[in-house]
Design goal:
The protein is built from 16 helices and 14 strands. Helix 8 links the parallel strand 7 and strand 8. It is globular, with a radius of gyration of 24 Å.
């Protein structure tokens, strides 16, 4: 039952825990121990795990997680180097990292990788595996202490060590990851009413709501609030039916101009994208990034970054609508590039602006990492909804209440 819940939990709401290290240090044995299942093939042959293995699991006391077993970081040859690069990309998206070494202890390569991941601010646990073959050396223990790294001695053949490992991972998780995700729930109380405006157009999936809408509605139910859902043309009628004014109106960003004209100024208004910019990352730099739309020049390149791969339809928000609106707004000749999924360019300095989707399929750690990468490259960044609000002159209205709440 717990595993079924973990698999149904949206990917962006699971902790991403990555196992990394050299070949044959026991990463696959550890993931099998954690899940109490045969997830990864275990062998004494070097390089048995050639591609990243992912497993959704309910890991108590932490909760729903995605566990990633990666290829060895000391892999060799042309294909081996590609596997190492693939492992590095997975590690960069981690909420937490289990760096595994065997009874040989920490090598120079291990220390180089560990220091590199510390620089990325990834919470890291060093696991000294195969302790039945040799104990942790005093030198390795001292080095971990110097780096302020938690460590754990493991022998995967001893199932009793599993509970200690689960607790160590819970202790490692940052407080913000263990806290409940707040989307709009800090803007209303039990018994209050919120209205969600969900236009049904050609881009809307058949027979269901999109994930951000579902999460907003579920949060309202959990807080015992009253959630009403309507389309844009029904909003005036819906507002009139409210005995008391709603505490908050949340709309799809593409309808913000029409909705803003209907909702009175004394009722808080925002968009699904703005709420996710706040919950999944940091709203302030996103709002600031939108102002870059006022200073675009001929020849500037804009990166469109999508968190998930999807079937591109006519009038796609990221690939079609936004480029047209931005070109009209700026009156400049601009170039647009698109990346999808976990692809994100290393050379961000070539772009005048990064436009990101709402990141409902990303975890908070990955989104924050992308924000930091843009900040380090001094490239402004904002998401689709915030850009649309800026282009339609309502950015201050949808963002000010949320910035004040934080």
């Amino acid at each position: 039952m717990c595993n079924a819940i973990a698999e149904q939990t949206p990917r962006g709401l699971r902790y991403h825990i990555v196992l990394a290290g050299r070949r044959n240090v026991g990463k696959s044995s550890l993931i099998n121990l954690l899940t109490e299942q045969q997830v990864s093939i275990v062998s004494n042959t070097l390089g048995t795990t050639t591609d990243t293995v992912a497993k959704a699991y309910e890991l108590l006391p932490l909760g729903p997680v995605s566990l990633f077993d990666t290829a060895g970081l000391d892999d060799e040859g042309e294909l081996g180097l590609q596997r190492v690069e693939a492992s590095m990309r997975v590690i960069a998206r981690a909420d937490m990292l289990m760096y595994v070494v065997d009874n040989l202890g920490l090598t120079t390569l291990d220390k180089q990788h560990i220091l590199q991941y510390q620089a990325l601010a990834i919470p890291l646990l060093v696991i000294f595996n195969k302790q039945d073959l040799g104990a942790i050396s005093e030198q390795d223990s001292h080095w971990c202490q110097q780096q302020q790294l938690p460590l754990l001695a493991m022998t995967t053949s001893h199932s009793a060590r599993r509970e200690l490992l689960c607790q160590a991972l819970f202790d490692l998780a940052p407080k913000e990851l263990k806290a409940d995700l707040v989307l709009a729930g800090d803007h209303y109380h039990a018994g209050d009413t919120i209205i969600c405006v969900a236009p049904i157009d050609s881009a809307a999936p058949k027979g269901r709501l999109i994930l951000p809408q579902v999460q907003i509605l579920r949060e309202a139910l959990d807080k015992h609030a009253i959630a009403m859902v309507c389309q844009t043309e029904q909003l005036s009628q819906t507002l009139a039916q409210c005995v008391t004014p709603p505490k908050l109106v949340i709309t799809d960003a593409q309808a913000i101009k029409q909705v803003a004209a209907i909702v009175p100024d004394d009722i808080a208004l925002t968009t699904f994208s703005t709420l996710f910019a706040r919950a999944k990352g940091d709203l302030a730099p996103m709002v600031s990034g939108a102002n870059a739309l006022d200073s675009l020049q001929d020849g500037d390149k804009i990166l469109i970054a999508e968190a998930c791969s999807h079937n591109v339809q006519e009038d796609d928000i990221g690939r079609d609508k936004l480029p047209k609106l931005i070109s009209q707004y700026s009156r400049k000749q601009l170039e647009f590039e698109v990346v999808a999924g976990h692809d994100f360019p290393a050379n961000l300095k070539q772009y005048a602006l990064v436009l990101h989707c709402g990141a409902c399929m990303f975890n908070r750690a990955e989104m924050l990492r992308r924000i930091r990468e843009c900040q380090m490259a001094q490239v402004p960044m904002c998401n689709y909804g915030i850009a649309l609000a800026k282009l339609q002159g309502v950015l201050a209205r949808i963002s000010t209440p949320l910035l004040a709440a934080k």
